[in-house]
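User: Here's a protein and a ligand (biotinyl-5-AMP). What would the complex look like?
Assistant: Let me lay out the input and then the predicted complex.
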Amino acid sequence: MPSVIYGIKYLKLETLFTGKIQYFEAEIGSTNDWAAMAVKNLKVMEGTVFRAGSQHQGKGQRGRVWASEPNANLLVSYVFYPGFIPAHRQFVLVQLVSLALKSVLDEILIDEVKIKWPNDIYVNDLKIAGVLIESTMKGNSVGSSIFGIGLNVNQRIFENVPNATSIALETGKGLDLDRLLSDLSSQLESRYLSLRRDLDTLSLKYSEALFRKNQKCEYVIGGQTTLMTPIGVDQLGQIVLEDEYGRVNSYGFHEARMVI
Ligand code: BT5
């Protein structure tokens, strides 16, 4: 467990509270685990970000691994306390982070940035960022939430990671990680503040940005590969797919996987 006292940095950002307190470690297991440990044991202010130069146990969803070259990319976990979100609507947090990343990337990239359900950010059919949100519940609402974000920035070679790209590969230019962190913090904060008034606008925008929306794609469902058309995401965060006969159904994370 690294010292969270000595690694602290106060950044000059144009936000009210997001990303202003930053804990940095050159190397850590996983920034999500680090943030979770800190939330459990210390008083962590809302919007605090835990950032690492490299991770030796970077986590993806369900035991998968997030791989990143040291000091080349953004590896961050933000802490929020969205007590106003009912537990059954917590997918809105994935939508918030995905749309914040899309906005940051839309400013930098020429090609269209899409969100591959549930938590991948894609450009040119390649994955440029991934999101891992880990939340605790308090009664029927979200208690604390850790927004884990891996954004590929300056890495140009991805070994053993098929379908990966980075800002440098897409634009031919490297980018300053601190500047990106500042942009990301602003994009997260503005959406987080508007979430208090309205959960549904974010959900609509997320559905609009869906990767291969309204296009026939192969999905693995119940062990079978089937042609389906993704048309949106429901309030629970399930993907809504239409089959060849026009029948519409929602599927959870474990039930449907796009083949790409
Ligand atoms: C994700 O999982 O995409 C969520 C990744 C979240 C990573 C951040 S980094 C900071 C914070 N701390 C952590 O420990 N995690 C978060 P998933 O959808 O399960 O995707 C994982 C899959 O993406 C892997 O199985 C690989 O196929 C692929 N992958 C791994 N590293 C990648 C990379 N750098 N770029 C693109 N794809 C990658």
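Summary: The chain has five helices and 13 strands.
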